[in-house]
Amino acid sequence: MAIKRSYYFKALWDHEAQVFWSESDIRGLHIEAETLAEFENLVGELAPDLIFDNHLRQDELGATALKDLIPSVVVRAPELAMSGT
Question: Which of these, 73, 32, 36, 37, lies nearest to 52 by C-alpha position?
Answer without folding.
Answer: 73
